[in-house]
# Entry
Amino acid sequence: MSATDVILAYLDIWNERDAAARVTLMKSVLTEDSLYADPDNAGLHGHAELSEAIGRAREKLGDLRFTLDTVVGAHHDRALFSWKLGTVATGYDVVEFAGDRIRSIVGFFT
# Structure
């Protein structure tokens, strides 16, 4: 699986409204001990904490969807990509891979 494929699967997690389906996706995309941080979240550990945060975000975001803008670069076990949230927001994420899953995500809003 390519870095782009994993990133697209990760964005599917953010677009999933159903909590059970979201956790199922997480198990195939994120390591069990994954770490997530962005300007609103200092550090979420594991699937449950991230799923709860995504659930709260989905309530506010309505039908807006995250899409991949550009994979800026990928090397070794890291990638930098930009994303769009509908037409209302953009940002960048740096992901660290552990094999074909993501171990950590650091997000930046623009």
Notes: DSSP finds three helices and six strands in the chain. The mean pLDDT is 97.
